[in-house]
Write a structure and sequence with these properties.
Strand content: 5-15%
CATH architecture of the largest domain: 3-Layer(aba) Sandwich
Oligomer: single chain
CATH topology of the largest domain: Aspartate Aminotransferase, domain 2
Helix content: 40-55%
CATH class of the largest domain: Alpha Beta
Structural class: alpha/beta
Strand order of the largest sheet: 3-10-9-8-7-4-5-6
Amino acid sequence: MGPVLLNRLTDLSAERGEPLAVQLYRDLLGAIRSGSLPSAARLPSSRVAAAELGLSRNTVNSAYDLLKAEGAVTVRPGAAPEVAELPVAAALPVLPVPATALSARGMGWAAGGRERSRSAIMAPGQPDEALFPRDEWARLLRRVARQGHGGAFGYEHYRGLPRLREVLARRLAADRGMVVSADQILITPGAQASLTLLALTLAERGDRALIEDPGYAGARNAFRGAGLVMETLPVDDDGANPAGASDARLIYLTPANQYPFGKRMSLARREAVIARARACDGLIIEDDYDSEFLWQGRQLAALLVQAPERVLTLGTAAKALMPGLRLGWIVAPKALASALADAQRNLGLAVNVHAQAAFADMIDEGRYRAQLMRIARIYGERGRAFAMALRAVPGVRAEDPAGGVQLAVHLRDAATEAAAVGALNAAGFGVAPLSSYCLGPPRSGLVAGFAEATPERVARFVMVLRQALVQAKSDL
């Protein structure tokens, strides 16, 4: 093969992102496999090829060595490389590229994506990053990074550092009335990971799950991905109503602060749900996602306190600190905790050791409680101010929040909802349509976070909302 042909077969460039020897090897191998370089054809010597291509002889020799290792050429001492006779591959039918490579199960897990713009503000459940204790967290991380962590730096304690589980058990007893052992606690990467673990391990595909309506989309996604059949529990001022509900393997609730309406479940409803679970041998998943933030009335004990054998309680540091830390936990009945920990390991749902150790120190030193008290006061003031400003807009109904960091804003109809959500999100806010939280008949409105609701942002939010509603009315 002459040098002109060699030059035509190669288009070497540093911009291709691979070493030049690898590029030359790939191009020549492609030519051999396609038949452009037939069997027994001789390649130029490394000297000739290097001169033709403007490469070093070492580069060309490296490419030839790769071809030899592949069995594509034979090299004899003192002779130029010769193209080997390669087996002829059987002709395969050309199949169209599938629309998706996901399985049916994978499609279930991928459904209901909730990605948000990084620049969106006042999104539901979003805390204020400006209130994150950066210096304190950095100090804690520096300290634990210098410490040894024994087997936890390998594959031990997948369910969470023993010390973190111990301090969490003490905190949950003091703050939520839960008398549990450290062995009942699993540290997870957050509420969604906890829900995924429980949906996959506590129910069979086709089992029924009862879920609040409107309710948390993350729970719906976890149950859908696990192949469960969902039935809705309507929500009113007393929380989720289990009256008339079917028997179910799982019952998902947010009793301390219903998401997204912010209602607390009454004692009668709590007892009815527990009775339902016991009657059908079901389990209750209690999402205690932001019970730390209470703006009205007295805090209720966790549902787990009433039925420790039936309730699994989920918690998270996402609102008190930040979601990006990926710190959550499950409190499980004693009979389930060990098996769930084994499943957690097999699913790879572990949390960074340094983050766990720093969080344990933060709780143990009282700094986590101090952080909660500081931001709770600020968030409470912002929530009440936000609701008051919204009530000044004609056609809007918004109650002062009883807890949490988001507010349900009720609007007249679907057209009004679409106009409001579209205008607000175009203005940089991250609101969600209230109808998207519904599995049953949709309710019109929007859900907005108020943790980031500074006076300036509230004024702009209300202005955009007012203009959107006026425009929607004129379009009728």
